[in-house]
Fold each of these.
Amino acid sequence: MKTQSSLPATQGNRNMMSPFDVLQDRIDRMFEDFSVGFRMPSVFGNGGFDLTPSLDLRETDKQVMISAELPGVEEKDIDISVADDMLTISGEKKTEYEHKDGDRYRSERSYGKFSRSVTLPFKINPDKVEAKFDKGVLKLTIPKPAEAQQQHMRKIAIKH
């Protein structure tokens, strides 16, 4: 019985990949790069999809801005909470059941509860956090407390 190996094909003393192995490697890399940012089916559970929202974080001297993608989620189904230095965005994307008589069909849209937490390097004042929701994107502005604004980055020189 022969087994397949993922090792490069060898020719004499040199390691050399066959043209087919090189092509397969490039195709694999292309699909890996393409799928970044997309939610792929979960390996565990009932075959559902990962609903973890994708985030963008930006920081200035005075504030932190967070944008979360929540397509298909209604504003009333989003909860934002703060505990010390942790901000949590949670909610639920509810199903829209479509009843169809006749042949079966497949649904690949994802539904369910989600939660995403971000820890910041300062205690968050929940009364000062601003939240806006428009076209499936939640935008949060979190002001830094005065003591966090005073912290400056210091570059360390590499000694030779």
Amino acid sequence: MTANDAIKLNLDSADMVCMGYLEDLSDADLLVRPCPGANHINWQLGHLIASEYEMLKAIHPDVSNALPEGLEEQYGRDKVGSDNPNDFRSKEELLNLYRAQRKISLEMLAKESSDKFDQPSGVPYAPTVGSLYSMLGSHWMMHCGQWVIVRRILGRPPLF
């Protein structure tokens, strides 16, 4: 197994878990907060999608952008307190954006030479190129832990 394969396995595992948690949730469900002051899933999805693009841009400034104009502002830190569904995109649109962005991420990972994984990324929380690619999956997994709580609040059964 190559480093590229191992990182892809991490991304695929995160995808399986995260998409499983989201599968039966409605647009309204995505606005439920796991506790007061926590971010709802809809905001987290936009944040994750925009963050994935920004992480890739740190190591490949010429990376293709699958994000529509305004997404990064729409899901910026100043929007975390909104519960107005009109401030956010639909689940379907967010998942389509995620798939488009993840496709780019996987294409870039497949082309990455393994000797580049030890090079600096310029990103403090993922200091090497390899750790940054790994963070693409880990970041989603960090957030989806909160989704489990929302699922239980909504009466959904445990999945994993």
Amino acid sequence: MKVGTTTTFEAAHRLPNHPGICARLHGHSYRVQVEAEGQLDDTGAVIWFEDLDDFVAGWISETMDHRFIASPEENPELLAAVPDHVICETGDPTAENLAAWIGRRCLQLDRPDLKFSVKVWEIHGWGECWAEWSSG
């Protein structure tokens, strides 16, 4: 059985290793979908929605929403100019690395009985792109 939650957030980033315009500081709307897959427990649930939502969406809201998500290699002068920045723990803040970072957060639930997948949509003026991470 699979259950999930979806949340949205707004953030700025830049991809310093990108060969084009994404190396410039810019912002996006993001949509994140987290799924947990496992067996139903005695209560008929895989995981309580509020537990999954609080643990993941609450963390996203506190950590990423309306922040500058920076690369670990970001220019220190730029970081000093943006005091509420956060460093992406999995590398440059691509959709792929954001999905992996959120996926690592899911694993901190310490539920080895569950498999997790995380899908991150980066919403642009010209469309939506996405990346997906899975624990197994």
Amino acid sequence: MRLIAILLLAAASLSAQSWKALEFLLGNWTGAAGEKDTQIGAGQGEFSFTLDLDSKIIVRRNSARYTSGVAHDDLLIVYTEGATRAIYFDTEGHVIHYNVRVPGENRAVFESDGTPKYRLTYWLDHGSLNGRFEIADKPYMTWISKRSPAKK
């Protein structure tokens, strides 16, 4: 019985520790993509990265609006299953499975399994959370985000 309690405590500790490298993402962010940074016009959006399910997963909720009139909402769930993985869903019906790696401090890269290859990269730069989304190694969109207050 004592061994089981020790193992459960160790597992809980590992779960909390496993997010250390992605901690820089956590919080609420407001961002903008310039007119030349998207194929659908300039955009404004907000997103959040939060720990959920007793810190077992990280959830990103994103909402963006573009000058072309396009609205985009999506959900990204980051989890560990041996390695760190993520699954993405959006209002256009896309579902993307990602492998997640942390190539350096305050940098995360989400790369898809399938074809075409999707890559979502985040990096912290002087308090701004920058992002880039690529399809088949071609830039599709870049943005700069600032931390915003939590919604009530």
